[in-house]
Write a structure and sequence with these properties.
It is a single chain. This protein is an alpha+beta fold. The chain is about 35% helix and about 25% strand. The chain has a six-stranded antiparallel sheet, with helices on both faces.
């Protein structure tokens, strides 16, 4: 069973612990929804100063809401629209310090001020994104991006 850990180390050490927890949760599970659900719950428990964490998955050429933790969210996002859709179009992580300055930002939650979106990739195809929002500006830094990309890389192995 999963035990809530108190993250008392450095940020780097804490990220290493959460990556180990992810691996333990999903290493022998094949169901994509179960793995994404546990991943979003784990990140919600681990990350501070966030108000939404979850996944959007590609379906019929657009992003569709997947497992998440937080308030109800936008259900469909066209590729190229908002931070999530732009991350899919560019196939790269987007870290946005102030979402209100992002052209075409889609405001699913008015409280969100900053955002990081990391593509999920299978083979050479983007199959979805991890989306994390924060109610404070400039919440996510280079370390968050690096370690969350490593988290997604572990997850990608099991999708």
């Amino acid at each position: 069973m999963f035990n809530v850990e108190m993250y008392k180390g450095t940020r780097e050490e804490n990220y290493e612990l959460v990556k180990k927890q992810l691996h333990a949760l999903i290493h022998d599970e094949k169901n994509q929804i179960a793995n994404l659900s546990n991943a979003s719950a784990l990140l919600n428990q681990f990350l501070d100063r966030i108000n939404w964490v979850g996944f959007y998955l590609m379906e019929d050429g657009e992003l569709v809401l997947g497992p998440f933790q937080g308030l109800p969210a936008c259900v469909r996002i066209p590729v190229g629209k908002g931070v999530c859709g732009t991350a899919v179009r560019k196939a790269e992580t987007l870290r946005v310090a102030d979402v209100h300055q992002f052209p075409g930002h889609i405001a699913c939650d008015a409280a969100s001020q900053s955002e990081i979106v990391i593509p999920l990739v299978k083979g050479d195809q983007v199959i979805g994104v991890l989306d994390i929002d924060s109610p404070e500006k400039n919440r996510f830094d280079e370390l968050d991006q690096e370690k969350l990309e490593e988290f997604v890389a572990i997850l990608n192995e099991h999708l």
